[in-house]
Amino acid sequence: MTDINAHKESFLKELRARTDANHKALEQNPYSERLMSPDVTVEDYKIYLEKMYGIIMPFEQDIQPKLSHIVTDMANRQKHHLLSNDLEMLGSNTENIPQYHFSIANEAAALGSMYVLEGSTMGGMVIQKHVSKLDVPVQYFTSYGSNTAMMWRTFIDTLTTYAVTQNKQEEIIDSAVATFKTMDNWLSGRQS
Fold this sequence. Notes:
- By secondary structure, this protein is mostly helical.
- It has helices at 3-27, 30-35, 42-63, 80-89, 107-131, 148-165, 169-188.
- The longest helix has 25 residues, at 3-27.
């Protein structure tokens, strides 16, 4: 293993370890738990998607473009239109959905936030399977289709390379932790 690859692997382990508690807290959020409950309803699903739209739309509009020179396949990572389509099919008007206003200081912080949001695509496969019994639209949760694992690996390689070569590990980790907390608070209605 080359020296840079060892540093990348070490950083990824530290990132996962230091965000683990916040990741678990987000999964234990009442809305997340409701979504994964055996008696989830179409309305539960719709509410969850509306809350996610309030995070995904502004991130993709305001933050992702600033990273396109680092994450070179950014155009393929846009998911807000799929989320919007799902919500429209569920009868929701996306114009009325409150949106979170990100305040991200730099590229490293943006990548830390993107780590959390891109990671949600992996969880989306589990959610999609769980809500399939509801016969609801799942374009957002199946955004990468059979390429989900490959898209995740590509992003992780980009993230870890940037972190190590730019010496931005701490900023990325701090931002990822903050983004997990933001999402938990946003889903809970504790932050607007």
